[in-house]
Structure prediction request, 244 residues.
Amino acid sequence: MSILGIDVGGSGIKGAPVDLASGSLVTERHKMLTPQPATPMAVSAAVAEVQRRFGPAARVGVAVPAVVKHGVAYTAANIDPEWVGCDIQRLFSVALGAPVTVLNDADAAGLAEMRYGAGREVQGTVVMLTLGTGIGSAVFLDGRLVPNTEFGHMEIRGDEAEHRASAQARKNDHLSWTKWAARVSQVLVALEQLVWPDLFIIGGGVSRKSDKFLPLLKCQTRVVPAALGNDAGIVGAALAAAES
Ligand code: BGC
Prediction:
């Protein structure tokens, strides 16, 4: 039986069985809209539907946009407030009838990039940022994850970093690539002053267009685009499930 990775986002839920030898999807991923309101119950039913597409799995990893400790969600920045305090790992395990590992979505994407992508074999401190609806973060020291960092909620110039510099903020505020890159640079510089990373990895859907903004970023640290694109969350969730 395979290991299934599922990535729950504010607008879509996508999943696929993952080949952990290569870090690639075994079959094309299945994507569905996130139910609204995205309560834990509604999302668990949707996650179970994704699983049914692929048949039984030995283990399932689910990446969610929340801080997750011991299976319990502690935040709900871009999802339903009912998530806070909910043991989503238990809820999903019951809904799926399989052992489930739940982790933060940016942590999942970071795990995948460190194992198979832009952070492969990089030592020292690596900070991965996912620029999407919000800003997710994942920190690695010598390849080991420090889970649940929430740098997207850092205050920059009086507002949360993700309100100013997420991919969504670029669209909402009709920013040119140059203006948006300046805001992303402010986030990177603020992080440099706090954690002095050796490498930044920029992920999220917008990393596909990295040629448009990466050359415009201004900070001391080396910045590289994520290599796994939109599949990183799925792959990282499966990896976490396999290794838990
Ligand atoms: C959440 C993080 C999440 C990020 C990306 C933020 O608003 O607080 O937990 O990783 O969005 O989805």
